[in-house]
Design brief:
Layout lengths: L4 E7 L2 E7 L5 H8 L18 E4 L2 E4 L12 E3 L12 H8 L9 H14 L5 H8 L10 H19 L7
Parallel strand pairs: 1-5
Antiparallel strand pairs: 1-2, 3-4, 3-5
Length: 168
């Protein structure tokens, strides 16, 4: 039997400390130990992208990372994207453009899109489609999701020009 290990990390701006088996996946730690169930687990092989979170500011698959590897990390899950009850421009654009159906892939899609928009403020439709290919969605053809990402990019540029920054 393996000895449980301590894990300390910051999730959605809040410090957490917990104990888990060394083999506990980060996705399971977030869901089962921290009750942050917005991170979805689909394939458990890092292929589908449903489990994508922001790990130290970059989109990362939480189903193929151990919780102990996240010790000391800064993590943002779907629960931490909105600030003070106000949607992030991407969340608002998803809502306004009907960019989800069943919603299973949405947390991962949001994390991937936020990371992408933080590095490409003026993407083309083709660039958005390429970035979104990191998350599989079986419900849509991505049309409304692409529209939402492009709308969010425009809103984020407008906010930046006005002195407000929407980065997570």
């Amino acid at each position: 039997m393996t000895k449980p290990v301590d894990v300390r990390l910051t999730v959605n701006g809040r410090a957490y400390e917990g104990r888990c088996e060394p083999r506990t996946l980060l996705a399971d730690f977030l869901r089962d130990h921290l009750d942050l169930t917005g991170t979805h687990v689909g394939c458990e092989h890092g292929v589908c992208g449903a489990c994508t979170i922001l790990f130290n500011g970059e989109a990362s698959r939480s189903c193929i990372m151990l919780a102990v590897q996240a010790d000391g990390a800064e993590i943002v899950t779907v629960e931490g994207i909105a600030k003070d009850g106000t949607f992030h421009p991407l969340q608002k654009a998803f809502h306004e453009n009907h960019a989800l159906q069943c919603g299973f892939c949405t947390p991962g899609m949001l994390a991937v899109a936020i990371d992408f928009l933080n590095t490409n403020a003026s993407p083309t439709e083709a660039e958005v489609r390429e970035a979104l290919s990191a998350v599989l969605c079986r419900c849509t053809g991505y049309q409304n999701i692409v529209k939402a990402v492009l709308a969010a990019a425009a809103e984020m540029r407008a906010q930046k020009a006005a002195g407000a920054v929407a980065n997570v």
